[in-house]
Structures are given as C-alpha cells and as structure tokens.
Amino acid sequence: MPKKDIHTENILILDFGSQYTQLIARRIRENKVYCEIHPYNMSLADIKSFKPKGIILSGGPSSVYDEGAPMIDKELFKLRVPILGICYGMQLMTKLLGGEVQSSNKREYGSAKIKVKDSTTLLKGFVKKREHEVWMSHGDKVEALPKGFHTLAVSKNSPFAAVAHENKRQYGVQFHPEVVHTKNGEVMIENFVFDICGCNPAWTMKSFIDMEIKKVRELVKGQKVICALSGGVDSSVVAVLLSKAIGDQLTCIFVNNGVLRKNEAEKVVSLFSDNLNLNLDYVDAEKIFLKKLEGVTDPEKKRKVIGNEFIYLFEREAKKMKGVKFLAQGTLYPDVIESVSFKGPSAMIKSHHNVGGLPEKMNLKLIEPLRELFKDEVRALGRELGMPDEIINRQPFPGPGLAIRIIGEVTKERLDVLRDCDEIVLQEIKRAKLYNKIWQSFAVLLPIKTVGVMGDERTYENVVALRAVNSLDGMTADVVKLPYSILMKISNRVINEVRGVNRVVYDISSKPPGTIEWE
Predict the structure, then answer these.
(1) Residue 265 and residue 45: Cα distance in Å, rounded?
(2) How does 227-256 read in b/e, with b if 16+ C-beta sit within 10 Å?
(3) Contact between residue 317 and residue 281 where contact means Cβ atoms under 8 Å apart
(4) Which of 7, 132, 165, 176 is catalytic?
(5) pTM of the model
(6) CA 201, 206, 208 angle in degrees (round to 5)?
(7) pLDDT tens-place string over residues 422-479
(8) What is the torsion angle, in degrees rounded to the nearest 10, for the CA atoms of residue 161, residue 165, residue 169 and residue 170?
(9) For this structure, is 176 an active site residue?
(10) What percent of the chain is modeled with pLDDT above 90?
(11) Which of 130, 177, 136 is nearest to 153 (CA)?
C-alpha cells in the first residue's frame, strides 16, 4: 500500500527491475519533488489512492514477449495522468497501446547518439537536428508507434528513440535519462516533472522532518522506543530526529560489537551522552560477538550473525525497560534495494544487516524513518536538524563493521591489526584534506600472507588492501585516483608501524562490477 502522508504532489515510479530505478527517484528528489518507487504490479486502486501527478515506468531486463514478462493494467493509460516510459517501460506502453515491438538483431548498449526532431515538450532545451549523447540498454526496439504518437528523436539503431502522444501526455524514451552518461538527461526529467506534470518544488528536508515527527508521534503515542545507535551518519540522524519527536520516550542503545574502529566506542559514548544529551545505554558485547563469529568465513553468514545478535541484544535491553514496543534503526533506501529481491524490482546483491539480518520473529516493531532516503538526503536532513559536521560528514561505515573488511575468519588478533591500519589510512586522508571529498576510504585485511624482507630478515606476513571510492548514493562508485605520494605515505606507515603486515596494495575496481566493501 502507498504511504498516507502530507504530500500533495507525488510522482509514482513503477519498477520493472531496472538497476537504474533508484536513480530516477534521485533525479526527481534533487528537484525537490516527492516521489515513491513501487513494484510494477501495484494495483490500479492503490495507484489512484496515491494520486500521482505523473507516472514513470522504469526500464527492466525483460522482453515484453518473455513468458511471464512484467505487465501492467492497460487501464493505467486512461487515468489522464502524464506517463513517461523508459526503455522497457516505453516498449510495454507501445505494445499495450497497439504499437509493434520486435526483438532487435542489434543490441544497443552503452553510449549512443540521438538526433532530436521535436524539442517542444519532453526534449525542450535540446537543439534540433543535432546529435546528443545518451545511454542505451536494450535488446528489443519499437518498430511501429501506437495511434496518435509521433517521433521526438531517432538513433542509429532505433527509429523511435523518443516518442510522444502530446494530447494524452504520454511519452517514451528508449534510453536512460536518469544516468549521468546521458548528457542533460536531468533536463528531460525536469521537463516531465515540472512542465508536463505541473509539479512544484515543495519537498524539502524541513517538510520531511515535519512529516516524520507527525507520523512517529501518531505511531508511538506514549510508548517507549529504543534506537539502534552505531555512531554513523544514519543511526545518528535517526536518534536526533526521534529525540526531537518524542523526547525522553527514546533510549539509544549503543552496542560495542567488537568490530568497531579504534577507540570508536569511547568517542560515541562521549559525543551522544555528554554533548547531545541523549538517553544512552552502552552495552559492551565484544566478547559475545567475537564468540559468535568464531570459524565464520562466509560474508553473508557474518552479516546475519551480527544482525541477529544485534536484535537479540536490543530485545534483551528492552526487557529491562517497561513499555518499550519499538526499535528504530537507520535503514536507507540503498540498503533495501540491495537486500530485497522479488519479481520485478532489482535482483538482490547482498543482504544488509538492517534488512537481511533481521530474524523472522521479532518482538519489537520497527521504526525506519530514513528507509526511503539516499545518503546525501540524510546528510541534508542532519544539517537541517542542526547536527555537528563531525557526524553528518562522516564517511559511511558498514553495520557489520570491520568483520566484512577482514576476509576470512574474524579474530581479536586480526581485528587489532586492521584497526591500526585503518587508523593510519584515515589519518593520512584527513591530513591531505581529502576526507570530505571521498565517499569512503578504508583498509581491508586479506586472508593471504606474502614473503617480505625487514631488517635483513625474511618475513611472511599479512597483505592489506587500500580502498578509496567516490559515489553519490553507494549504488555505483568510481575509484579515487589517490596521488602516489599519499599511497606511498600510507604504505610506508602501515608496514613500519603495524606489526604483522609486510605488503600494501591498492584496489582500483569500480562498482559495478565490484562492490564498495569486499564482503
């Protein structure tokens, strides 16, 4: 069911499984217009109750002729609401409205050029008869348009790269305007959202705060809430937001799970209990978690072990307090996208400890106010709440902590080695004034040893990998081209200062095909 909230202007995105669906939402929200992503099989009744000012049909990996291909109710096109079909969405719209779609002998994938023939509506601002760079990702293509549609743009392999039925305000593009590889793709989205759908840029973090405070108060009433606090950006923003909403009804539980960074537990306790004056319950569970992780080498099992133990400890702590019914945590939209797989939306990449690690039966009801936000939106929310820069500008740190930055078994000895390496990485990145310019920078302890020479003696010790990437939301990431001077400084310090390491390497993989974390 769609959410019932105070938004009066909504764009609805129906997801057919594209890896880029969340980027559509990002582009719309960047323009201060609220939108939600729902599965393609959302009922027509729910779509009507959502009252969208516009509907976007996402791309997807299927062919419209596949057995069991994702379909929508044809009645959707009679709602008199502007519709934009992207890639698969365009092909599906064409087929349902009487046009012709055929499997192409020539797939069009990657960078391509379109030539604009009509720049009055969707492509307003694009120069006619000039080629524009776009990003294609399709096998099928439209061969004949439905009645009333005309061509807006063509490409070398697609005679209908962009089309429109102006009277019905129905549009289709064979490429992906939401990705950065489509030059000025954001202009197309702005044209659709503002000019065609008539939306106003009214959705801000201030309006989000007002909405969430109202929702939390209505949900919680006089009952108590515990918040899973890690000290990272997400859980910290949740804690401050809920404190603003329900005050002393909130108790933050900070669990030292033994896989935190160097001196992190002490820093978190000081910051939140002393400086921000939040009710804080500190649980030292280092020995418990390390015992549970003994012999565990599979990354998915590590995540689930840590997630399950978190919930168990929260429930144990909650029993000590009367009236606790809710658990709040800092789950973000990318966590959900990467953790949930069902027919239509994007295939699962990994389980996030907040999502995949939760047990099937849990005595506490979840509150996840950031569940549909991206990381940059959470930072903006933190600023709106007046939180200190040292929290909101902190680089993302995974919930399973250093456990997934140690490839293989997690032990106290290996954790101590990685903590010292990680501390050096952060010190040098900050010293070079790059910390706030990099999405994530960290060290990974590998499960191999190599031969080295130290002090004229042969050594056989650990290898550490350095990782530094830039990203907007964690869904894709590019390698940071760190200067050799910084890499050399980090390498020299790690090898000289951390006992047990004799080799340092730099990871130059992007996401995709790799992921940001190694596990």
Answers:
(1) 49
(2) bbbbbbbbbbbbbbbbbebbeebbbbbbbb
(3) yes
(4) 176
(5) 0.71
(6) 80
(7) 999 999 999 999 999 999 999 999 999 999 877 667 788 999 999 999 987 777 889 9
(8) -50
(9) yes
(10) 59
(11) 130
Catalytic hit among 7, 9, 36, 87: 87
Among the listed residues 160, 157, 142, 153, the one whose alpha carbon sits nearest the alpha carbon of residue 103: 142
Percent of the chain with pLDDT over 70: 91
List, in sequence order, every residue forming a beta bridge with 441; answer none if it has no partner: 468
Cα 116 to the center of its chain, rounded Å: 33
Domains of the chain: 10-196 (3.40.50.880), 205-392 (3.40.50.620), 405-506 (3.30.300.10)
**Of 185-189, 252-256, 273-277, minimum mean pLDDT range:** 273-277
Which amino acid makes up residue 456? D
Length in residues, the chain: 519
Q: What is the DSSP letter of 191?
A: I
Q: Which of 36, 178, 368, 377 is catalytic?
A: 178
Cis peptide before 61 (omega within 30 of 0): no
Closest CA to 35 of 145, 224, 189, 256: 189
Rounded mean pLDDT, 194-221: 92
